[in-house]
User: Fold these one by one.
Assistant:
Number 1:
Amino acid sequence: MNQTIETILNHVSVRSFTEQALTEEQIKQLVTAAQAASSASFQQAYSIIGVTDPDLKQKIAEHAGNQPFITEGGHFFVFCADVNRHKQLAEDLNMDISETIEGIDAALVGTIDATLAAQNLVIAAESMGLGVCYIGGVRDGIIKISELLDIPEYVFPVFGLVVGYPNERNDSKPRIPFEGIYHTNRYNSNTKEILKQYDETTKLYYENRSGRKSSRTWSETAIGSFARLPRSFMKGFLNGKGWAKR
Amino acid sequence: MNQTIETILNHVSVRSFTEQALTEEQIKQLVTAAQAASSASFQQAYSIIGVTDPDLKQKIAEHAGNQPFITEGGHFFVFCADVNRHKQLAEDLNMDISETIEGIDAALVGTIDATLAAQNLVIAAESMGLGVCYIGGVRDGIIKISELLDIPEYVFPVFGLVVGYPNERNDSKPRIPFEGIYHTNRYNSNTKEILKQYDETTKLYYENRSGRKSSRTWSETAIGSFARLPRSFMKGFLNGKGWAKR
């Protein structure tokens, strides 16, 4: 197994960071790695905002599920879907791309581009011995956080990402078995037995892991979080910024 | 620079593959790497379909922009957003998650999870000397391709990915300058000058690259593809599968 695959397989989310900050050089190296990712039709439909102002970071953390480690020493990136620059460039070229950028597919394109870039940054960071945690909670507070970050129309925050020096590492969680995720030639709807076994595996894992213990299964945890987080404000917010209107 | 960052920075899309197929072991290793990625609230809201049947692959290629290299020796993966299994599990747990999974945020969650997994697979593949190409064109033919793959409700194909042994490699395209993508503390809407310089850089690149030459700028290329591909059928398709209805 090569060093890269080892890095990928050793991934865990880190939720406790030392006070050591990233250097400007590290940030530049990480963003360069992010930008090396593929991009749909090479549209580069994303932006990255680094939040360094302590007050601003504190406020964003409060709106993003109030997870305390966001304000620790790690660098806080917010990945955004972004077709604002394309909208401006289209006007300069006397072209109308409203139908495209206001359609739901453009929201997928921006989300995909932001996510490809983010995952490159994550793997680069982990290969340097840094730890990371995605902050999907940025979408819990997307309305307020967008105000704080001066997010204009045709841009929206997809998620946050903390990157820093790990204080402690969690255990690696077992994934859905291969056969439950990977299908051959056609979608296989009959994965109930596989998921039942997986629930047993995860129950054992949660009972025995080194951190916070519980006796829940994966199903209970995953379905519980779906039930808790409908984010029903999302459509109105996105439409208000010009996205996914048609 | 470590091996992993070198792999990441050397990425190019490969559009010509030898006839050598991936082994079952390689496929398993790649999917395991994909599964090691983070997942929003650990919901693992994605599935991967490997298309090996030559007839099926040929038909999908025709609907996905008819790019001939899809049917070459590489392995063809289709990454799907998937909350179908969560819907089934919620019913077993007597919970109603319709409001969540039918909201637009769930479509983002599934897209993010599929993309995180895919990018892990890409970097693992490239670290093994393989070449890759994302096929966003799968969404051009999403209606027909979903029929061919037996895609049920609460699942949709996000993109395809070809992974195989490269026959030839393209040059690496220059990206938007760092300052155009990375903003500090607040979104910076004034990137017009940076993008103007970038257009000069890309024009020179396209005029001099080893493959198909042209004298277009990045703006013209990116805006042109937005204008060409509104994918205005996407909302109807997604709604029909239960997604993004509210």
Note: Chain B has a mean pLDDT of 96.
Number 2:
Amino acid sequence: MSGAIFSDWMRSIQSRTETALANALPPLDLTPDRLHEAMRYAVLGGGKRVRPLLAHGAGLVTAAAPDTVDRAACAVELIHAYSLVHDDMPCMDDDSLRRGKPTVHVEYDDATALLVGDALQSLAFQLLAEPGLIPDAARQLKMVEHLGVASGSRGMAGGQAIDLQSVGQNISREALEVMHVHKTGALIRASVQLGALCGPTQDPDTLARLDQFSKRIGLLFQVVDDILDCEADTATLGKTAGKDARNDKPTYVTLLGLEEARRFAAELEADALAALGPLDARADMLRALASYIVHRRF
Amino acid sequence: MSGAIFSDWMRSIQSRTETALANALPPLDLTPDRLHEAMRYAVLGGGKRVRPLLAHGAGLVTAAAPDTVDRAACAVELIHAYSLVHDDMPCMDDDSLRRGKPTVHVEYDDATALLVGDALQSLAFQLLAEPGLIPDAARQLKMVEHLGVASGSRGMAGGQAIDLQSVGQNISREALEVMHVHKTGALIRASVQLGALCGPTQDPDTLARLDQFSKRIGLLFQVVDDILDCEADTATLGKTAGKDARNDKPTYVTLLGLEEARRFAAELEADALAALGPLDARADMLRALASYIVHRRF
């Protein structure tokens, strides 16, 4: 597949995701309007939409209708967006810049940021539970359950808690992986699961391959994030760079060194592609996504 | 029905809710253990479990299996518990005492309190989505959707946002009602809806009556809360009393005066009972609950 085909697909998914999110978020003229404005501020107009891209890429493999995948993509992206809002708050990472804009608690206030995150999480589940999203209601419940597990104490929120406990600690490579499997990996895995569950082709071997792929991609995403955090300057990244190292947070770069971290990323990319193995051309967007994640500059 | 029968039922529901919550919460030996400990601290060993009582009361009307209602009851109680944890945080009400114990951010720290709330919300949806909770998966999705709406920006979180905006404002009785319909009313309504949806008897007229009942009860609960906040001392209430008035928050007592607030509570109780109207003795626990909510001392 040519790079141009992938770029076009990526832009089309990013564009339809923006539209779907704008439609899913409560309108500005609805009470409480300030909260709704802040929710839209937190979600719209930014981000590379990596999780929606993964959901749509997996949906292609199971022949899902893109309109259906939009809903799953919105759900995972809303969870991601809420986690950024809470993570940026003064009691967590205390960041003032996100995607080149003031963070929600800076633009509004701490209480509003707290409620924005809370309401975005509720909205994610509400969207995913709307009856009739897919014909098989039992499978739709499974999607909701996956999102719950991925977001909670054994997933993303748990990863944040492990992260808090690991500041200033000398942790092992295994412990670092446990943290990332929770913090970033769980929601990336859920993005692929939810996208795949949207389609009618529910072949167990294919689903197992997609799951293996998503686990590698989740870790890969974090390793590349650590590399970028070490390399990039604030202007390129759109967030305060080098912050993890300054905050004395363990990263793959501080643990392995820059070169070994890069080698590990290449290994994870190869493993991810191997997991997709014999799947036909319908998995090509996922293959291209793996490469995109390694070579991204954001 | 005698008061003793109601008291026994109430104690049995409170006890089985405590057990169900303890089983639903992640065990202490699971990573991240500190987060799981804080989640259990936030949820277990306290509270009158009004929402679980309403869910079980409604479940009686639709002949639901109590084990099934336990799950719905846990879901609404986890949402309630998370809202208390976030509401008590320094950037919101900044409360240090809850149910006679230090609040989560005091006992642990702000970041942990934030994550405890986030993870409790995820867990609520995860529990409710577990496939097979009721035989009708489409109806179970409706339960999840109701909980999403009740928790989000058009429900509880939205009510908190309206509350923030109304501090120090002279608001009308109508505006106060809009706030409470969102802040407390939505989740109380969902408690009744979810409990009712657990049962096999899904008669539309009965469900409509239960819904009317729950709307009155939601408002009643808040009016009584305002009366108690005005009357009670810290020892009786187990939380810092008179705080709303000191924080310059509008209440039914500041708006109507104590006597008129009491009269309004009596009117709401009568309306709630009238909504149940012709329903048979299976609705008696809900009838007794209405009276209990008016005469409670917590």
Note: Chain B has a mean pLDDT of 93.
Number 3:
Amino acid sequence: MTEFELIRRFTAPAPRRGTGVVLGIGDDCAVLRPPPGELLLATVDAVVEGVHFDARFAPGDVGWKALAVNLSDLAAMGARPLWALCALAVPEGADPRRLAAVGRGLAACARRHGIALAGGNVTRARELSLTVTALGSAPAGRVLRRDGARPGDVLLVSGTLGDAALGLAPGAAAALARRQRRPDPRLALGRALGPLASACIDLSDGLAQDLGHLCRASGTGARVELSRLPLSPAARRALAGAADPFLAPATGGEDYELCAAVPPGRVARALAAARRLRIPLTPVGVVTRGRAVVLEGPSGARYRPARAGHDHLAPHRRKPAF
Amino acid sequence: MTEFELIRRFTAPAPRRGTGVVLGIGDDCAVLRPPPGELLLATVDAVVEGVHFDARFAPGDVGWKALAVNLSDLAAMGARPLWALCALAVPEGADPRRLAAVGRGLAACARRHGIALAGGNVTRARELSLTVTALGSAPAGRVLRRDGARPGDVLLVSGTLGDAALGLAPGAAAALARRQRRPDPRLALGRALGPLASACIDLSDGLAQDLGHLCRASGTGARVELSRLPLSPAARRALAGAADPFLAPATGGEDYELCAAVPPGRVARALAAARRLRIPLTPVGVVTRGRAVVLEGPSGARYRPARAGHDHLAPHRRKPAF
């Protein structure tokens, strides 16, 4: 199969037209019209076979996740998603039907969030990978950064935590495996939090680590009560009798939920906005002075997880962005 | 080495600030201010160890080329380059000094063209690769596309052809090897051609193939006189006595020169603009009715190169963009 045929098969299912696409796939660059007066937000992230996905992932899951993890970065900054580019690396002899199914997964995620696949490229490599660039926009005053948290802000976490990490276990419940394979970026919630939160980050590497990034950028500390971490029914079942029931919720990666710091006077509005969107949003702690990120167990004792803090280059560490 | 240390080393030499960088490396997304009223141009391209570069490339060449091939896409569309994101894939046990040198090469190319490295990510993979997203802008009326060529337009080629392909040969002259390893995208020329050319493409896969793309997109044919292809002194020496002296100039990839179709009434202005920029620009043929791309040898006979038309997925095929 030539690369032209491969590109055709991979891109055929994707939405190519959309807001501001002047010229999409087929020329040297995509030509895009940014929303007047707004800022452009850009992020890139790769999913690599054997690192970010394995044979347990259906091809469609791979394509979905490659786009979803990028859209989660846009969500974390309060952006509206607009366009994606996808660099595809394909091993010699790859099954064209499998690649077409990967393309359908990416297309499904793009359609769900109303964005267009505006360009990309394909190359040979030893393992399959997709490197997606996602572009979005936001009004200048609505961009959520990591570095704006202030002592006293309330820490709010969306959805439920630990599901994606638990979804990696052999025999994991379908609901947990689905969180691992088809993450659902919190774009609408991110935009709703744009005018309310003082800082935000998406939870790709686990709450302990990502909250650490937010606090370091903001020059603050944080205190989290582990008993308040939101758990799904499936996670509760999986964690019943676990040696460390807080390990997955506090340190498990890839939930792609949002963690926002919201000034106390705006918490009610943030919670109301989440209710309107039917997205759970749970206060789990506060931003503190100092530099320490303290996780408190139910007894009030400081929690020291077995493996908080990951090397993102280790297998199944997900979103080492810079 | 943790990924944070690796990111620090890789990105340290790169220019991070620049036109419109509101927030660069360090958050979930780069936040960028597009030039008001202009269109955004976006392209992505990967260079992969063993496919696009090998041990003959110094690490700095790899970083330079990864960015340069993307900037060439911006050049082909008449854009001003603004920002780049870089997704880095690193094999286990990679030498941190080598990665730092790759970063310095990328930084050197970014500085040369006045752009900022605004973001990126790092992941494990089996071979080293850099997937760069380049972003630029152009006024709406100045974007050069592939599909605007009209019969009678004159085909102009910048610089010299065949050097990069000849630079792959063992013992190639330093000038040729340098064209292969440190391509120099024709950004200023692309912008100068913006208001003059009816179509343009950059020569990543060789004139025969890339002109074919331009003609297919435009619904035209083309006739090129091979004896008019511009050759460097080093290429002339390398080709002296070659079995097929047109093979490298007509079909060799990776020169990253521009091929523009310019209406006859504007050719003098295009040539004058190139002279001002001190970039050779050579008429090599014309756009024709029909669909055939005809390469004419010195005798006037139709040329049939041994291997015109590449599978971009074969080793050392370079820029399979979509």
Note: The two ends of chain B are 36 Å apart (CA to CA).
